Amino acid sequence: MAMEDEDKNTAVVATNVRAGIKKGGDVGDNGACIDRQPDTVVHQAGLNPTAGRGSRSGPGAHAATGIRVLKQRNMKRNGSRRCMTRKTRFGSRERDWLKGDTQRGCVCLYGGTVDPQPPAPGPQASSTPQTDLQLVLCSTSTTVEELCAQRDGQGLYVQLHGDLTRRLDPSERPLQMVYDYLASLGYSDPVRVQQEAANSDLSCMIRFYSERPVNADQQERTLLKGVFSVRKGKTQLHKWAERQVLLCGTCLIVASVKDSLTGKMHILPLVGGKVEEVRRRQHCLMFSSAGSQAQTYFVNFDTLADYQRWHRQALKVVSQTVSLVDLSCYSLETVPEYLFYSQDITHLNLRHNFMSLQGPGGLLNLPRFSQLKSLNLSHNRLGVFPECVCEILTLTELNLSCNSLHTIPVQIGNLQSLQTLSLDGNHLSSLPEELGGLFQLNSLGLSFNNFSHIPAVLERLSAVDKLAMAGNRVETLELCTLIRMSHLKNIDIRLNGLRWVKSENLEAVSQVTQLDIRDNCLDSLDLSSVCNLETLHCQRNQLGTLTLSGFTLRMLHTGSNRLTTVNIYPVPNQLTHMDLSQNLLEYLPDWVCDCRKIEMLDVTHNLLSELPSRLLNSLSLRKLLTGNNRLQRVPDLLDHVPLEALDLQHNKLVELPEGLFYKALNLKYLNVSANALESIPSSSQSEESLSTLQELYLTGNNLNENCGALLVGHQNLRILHIAYNQLLSFPASKLSKLELLEELNLSGNKLKTIPSTVSSCKRLHTLIAHSNHITVFPEILNLPEIKLVDLSCNELTEIQLPDSLPSTLQELDLTGNSSLILEHKTLNLFSHITTLKFDQKSTTTAGDSLNASTPWNHGFSEMSGQRNKLCVSVLAVDRFGDNVEACYGIFDGDRNEEVPRLLQCTMGDVLCEELQHCSVDMVYMCNTFLTSHRKLGMAGQKLGASALLCYIHRETSDPGGYFSLTVANVGTCQAVLCRDGRPVPLSKVYSLENCTEEMERVKLSKAIITEDNKVSGVTCCSRLLGCSYLSPWVLPKPWVHTVPLCPQDEFLVLGNRALFERVSYQEAVCTVQAVQDPRAAAKKLCSLAQSYGCKDNIGALVVSLHIGEDSCTCEPPVSTTEPRGPPPAPVPVSVTPGPSEPVNISSSGGIVTEFSSETSASEVGSEAGSTASDEHPSSGLASRPERRCSLHPATTLCGIMVPGSAGAGTHPGLFQRQPSSATFSSNQSDNGLDSDDEAPLEGVISNGSKLEVEVDIHCCAFQLRSGAPESPKDLDLEKQGSDYLNGKMRRQNSVVVSATNGCLLAVCGREIADLKKSPSTCSLFGKKLSNGSVVVPEDSHNLIEVALEAPKKKSGYFTAPAQQDPEDQLIVPPSLEQEVREQLRSHGPLLSGPSAPSTPTTLKDPVWDHPHPPAFASNLVPGPGPTPILQQEVYDTAL
Q1: Phi, psi of 1308 (to 5 degrees)
Q2: Measuring CA to CA, which of 261, 346, 917, 1395 is 20 to 30 A from 426?
Q3: H/E segment holding residue 669
Q4: CB of 463 closer than 8 Å to CB of 443
């Protein structure tokens, strides 16, 4: 009733608004309409219906216009169940006005205050001023000045990404700013831009304030003041007196007159002084200055809060060694006027503000600081160089970076003391000659400007030793120019588009020692004239030849080029580090072996077929990386070589040198994965081994169990990867010798058991042994440090556990063990595990039968590596929506886990929503990413993630044609399709290193790109979801690509950056081809990446495709023996849909069930145990379901499988329990729950910012259609069913059913329609499932409702009897049997398969196993009625 009352009140408000507009005149294109609507409090308190009409005394009355303002307090965000939607915010007249022109829209104004309302009856009445939200109707031509004139405001402020707040100029146009911002994100449709501009979620990215928002912390750091009792001096000669006291900058300021700041002011410098607590008086501090003439003031504060605030700030000041005042990131327009009393300030930081020239604290007054040496004015949007700064003659350091400066004034020559000048990130193309007179200038930053040549004025700046000109437009570097600048030693001209380095004469360039020309367009480079070069960076060019002088060369980095040879003369005897990776070298130059001091050599990803023997026997070489070449042998070593790390992976080695381990005694790291080794050398020539080897990677060879005995000598081994070999066993006695072992990977072998001696490895924390034939659970749960155990894809049958498990165990993966049965006691012991994965032993439900018809299936794997948290999430829905479609995605947050989880929860539902608005792949995919970016809310302001989304569908123009695959991505997540055994890349890597056009775009927007190619030092990606504070440099607009699928397409591989950095597309394809099971294939990809050296989070998703010639994937029925007991028979039921209601059936392809970490293991145990004792309690005619395609579905009626038409087999699901509830801020969450107006829900766990839902997967759902019961019997049955689910639940007009992870959930159709209309309820849609499967949009919101309806726990777990009760039989009255048959026969044309079998009068359905009355039983028994329409219903257990 509260909702109905609120709707009525809203209608009254809308009427009032329309009346006010009509009375005052229509809103013109240039006008503005301010709409403040009352909230629920005002509604219930009784809003005066005439308050907003023509009365000038009413709120919102203005003399200049006829606009009427209706106030609203604490307006709830769109997404709350009681919030105002766009339709209820405005009346029809306002909506028509908006629709009339896309240049009209709505601007949300925050931060205003309203007068207290008179007290009203009821507990919700409020009488305190609260911030309100104003909805302003205006056009793109409406200026700030016009808006302020209509609302009697002083000004408007804009805040971007929850960061700084800037005062808008009177001529700026707020709505146009919003439209421009949305266009920069990627929106192109004017109508969609108009809709997005009115969305309240946008306020997390761009928000307007009617007043400057107050930040208590900011006020504390800039200025503290108050009237307190003050006494001067340590003696008792002075008396206590009330005085005005200020703490600003570096000084304590005490006024000589009470309550006045006029007259004499006592200044006490605090830098280097003391602030101490006076114990004899309460809340009293003693402030003392530094030096022999120190002064002291005692200040007695009134409250403890004031005392602590002043004490905290004063401690920061006295602890400084220099007089520094940091006012950065405060949205300041002027500095506090009292700051000028601090004349001892030497360093002033005003970075990231909006400083203006005028005003008492403007830039024009900065020369008043007589001792100022360092001034930072970067990122202040100045536009012009502040000439007043040139009057501060004491300056030695000046930073004016990122201020859109175009010129430098000649007055810069006045700063004769200037030593450091930073002008990066501006629009400079020239420098004044007067700059050359600054003879003390030793650092000049000119990076990311518009210089096309090196400024000639640098010739006169003899103290400058570094040329910092990265990111400019220098295409030609004249070495003769550098000769004239003999003082320059360090040259940085990366990211310039440099094409030529010319040397017109033979004169040597002797002063340059460091040269950085990375990320340019050079195809050849001759620097032989730079005779004293020590360090050269020339990565990511197009170099085919390189010629250098080796006299003083120490470090050479030439990776990612096209080099076939490198010419250096003379031999670089000082060279210590050399990177030649990712080139085209077929042999190493001879001079490499002659380098006497070489310590690190990287020649990975070349074409080398052999290594010189002299190289490995170098007396200086400590690290040699030669992976991904064509090496067939490794030369023998001499004794006592100093080699410490050797990488030989991805070669063609069949053996290693015999004396490798006892000749290279310092060897600590060896990686020989992906070779053809059949054995490894012995660790020593005698029984005693001196090996210091700590990490050994042997994955992907042909090793057998004999190699185990050879590992014994490596007693210092910490990490051993020996996956995907030919091991039949591992010697038990040998494993016990590896006592220091911490990580062991034995996956992909033929092991039947892991030796019990593994318990001797007391330091073991990771055991990965998936994809073997292990039948007995290893004795590892007694290990004190065990964290991760992966025994998936084995043949486990039981687990024997100790009485208690180590608290360190965080993840246990038992999926893929088809015969494993877990008892309740076992699951109770696993209750503390963060991530628990095991197969769900469920009977086939209607959803499973539908899923069996999809021409694809998936498997995935996520590994955290050596990181403490998993920042990769996977989305996988085999059946997406109502059709034969699928949705897959992968999200990589790099260092954060919040954004990937949020995207996993919402992105599939956003796609489903966008598909209802548009069928153009470029449009709906782009809008999906942009909407998901907006829905990240506050989490997306500072955090971001790479995202990739794949959508398999049929073209709308040809629903019966072939499937198409639409891929969209931002960031570094990638997808590759296997077609005819060859990889077909489907994604675009949006990183600055790999995408030239993105690099140019970011440079044009004047971003600062650090030396590691990261935007502002944060991310290497130019496109991400989230990280909105990096806009416009980092955008959320995706790359979209659609490819038609054909029978030659075998599978799809999705992975994050870490996977494809180590595993090439071709290797990924070959790896998956060799493994039939997608889950095992995904796990193998991750294991390979780890063995190849990846330490980061890894995520892989493999989608197996079965696209036939005619898109048909039908399989002929398989005859099998019938299970014990009579099979269930179909029963006719009567369902009468409404005259205009469509019949919609939706199901989810997800087969995975998730549990929150708070759910006890006994609850999990009941899900497996309640059915594990059954032998297929609801098995159909066959144990294997007949796979049907969309063109030839099984016997169905209105899209629902008919029991008996297809064999009911087991489709194992997956249990996973993982902390999957994403953390939502109350300001960003759209979960539809408000803490102040929602009663606590049973089954919903909330701790403020965290929301988790406990769902009983035994809850069954029943598919109903509209139509009231038409007999007393029906009414009784209906009442009985509704009492079972929830006594408060009412029968709705329409109820649909969805199969979600093997569990059917009853969802009211009207609620679904309402939810779909609300674009901000998506965070509840698709609650995160740890294995990636998510709930379809129709179901996910109702998880909370289902939690209410779940049966209570009994004996520690949900009880679900395995045997069927006699009363659980559905009886069709004999009088209706004939009518049922006739109705089914009349609907025969609707069936696209065999006709429905004969229907007996009774059915013992396994859904009635629950000891509760059936729900909604009124629709299960046909009743009399006009023109009844029968539909075949399917009922099955949730498990």
Answers
A1: -75, 130
A2: 346
A3: strand 669-671
A4: no
Of the candidates 117, 110, 95, 141, the residue with the CA atom closest to the CA atom of residue 47: 117
User: How many whole angstroms separate alpha carbon 1007 and alpha carbon 495?
Assistant: 12
Query: Token pair for residue 586?
Result: 């077929």
Quote the CA–CA distance of 1333 and 1054 in Å, as a whole number.
15
Q: Which residue is associated with the tokens 């020559």? A: 413
Q: Which residues of the chain have pLDDT under 50?
A: 1-88, 113-130, 846-847, 850-851, 1112-1371, 1389-1439
Residue 1371's Cβ-count burial label (10 Å; 0-12, 13-18, 19+) is exposed
307 touches 285 (CB < 8 A)? yes
DSSP characters over 398-416: EE--SS------GGGGG-T
Report d(CA 1098, CA 864) in Å as an integer: 6
What is the SS3 string spanning 1220-1272? CCCECCCCCCCCCCCCCCCCCCCCEEECCCEEEECCCCCCCCCCECCCCCCCH
Amino acid at 40: T
In which element (H, E) is residue 105 found?
Answer: strand 104-113
CB atoms near residue 1124 (< 10 Å): 10
The one-letter code for the residue type at 497 is: G
Place of tokens 């069709």: 1372
Interatomic CA distance for residues 231 and 1268, integer angstroms = 84
Task: Return the structure tokens found at 1161.
Answer: 């293991």
* Cis before 269? omega within 30: no
Give the other-Cβ count within 10 Å of 278's Cβ. Answer: 13
Q: How far is CA 596 from CA 64, 546, 619, 638, 929, in A?
A: 86, 21, 8, 16, 54
User: What token pair was written down for 100?
Assistant: 């009339």
The predicted structure's pLDDT at residue 153: 78
The helix-helix angle for 898-915 and 921-935 (nearest 10°) equals 140
SS3 891: strand
The pLDDT assigned to 151 comes to 78
**1395: its two tokens:** 């006709």
Q: Is the dihedral of CA 595, 596, 602, 607 positive or negative?
A: positive
Q: From residue 1227, how far is each of 331, 1068, 1091 by CA, in Å?
A: 22, 42, 43
Q: Which residues contact 1142 (CB under 8 A, 6 or more apart)?
A: none
Gap between the Cα atoms of 951 and 958, Å rounded: 17
pLDDT at residue 690, as a whole number: 87
Using an 8 Å Cβ cutoff, are 878 and 858 in contact? Answer: yes
Q: Which two tokens stand for residue 792?
A: 């998936």
In angstroms, the CA 739 to CA 588 distance is: 40
Total Cβ atoms within 10 A of residue 795: 15
Straight-line distance from the first to the last Cα atom of the chain, in angstroms, rounded to the nearest whole number: 37
Please name the residue that has the structure tokens 């209608």: 11
CB 1026 within 8 A of CB 1033: no
By the 8 A CB rule, do 243 and 268 touch?
Answer: no
Rounded CA separation 134/108 (Å): 6
**Predicted local distance difference test score (pLDDT) of residue 829:** 82
Dist CA 933 CA 703 (whole Å):
48
In the block, tokens 């489903």 appear at 912
> Percentages helix, strand, coil for the chain, rounded to the nearest 5?
20, 20, 55
Separation in Å, CA 107 to CA 17, 61, 195, 693, 1299? 17, 20, 11, 65, 41
Q: Looking only at Cα atoms, what is the longest distance across the chain? A: 113
Q: Are 382 and 359 in contact (CB under 8 A)?
A: no
- What is the per-residue pLDDT for 1089? 96
**DSSP at 1055:** E
Ordered DSSP codes for 109-170: EEEEE-PPPPP-SSTT---S--EEEEEEEEETT--HHHHHHHHT-S--EEEETTS-EEEPPT
How far is 1417 from 1423, CA to CA, in rounded Å? 12
Q: 1024 with 893: CB under 8 angstroms?
A: no
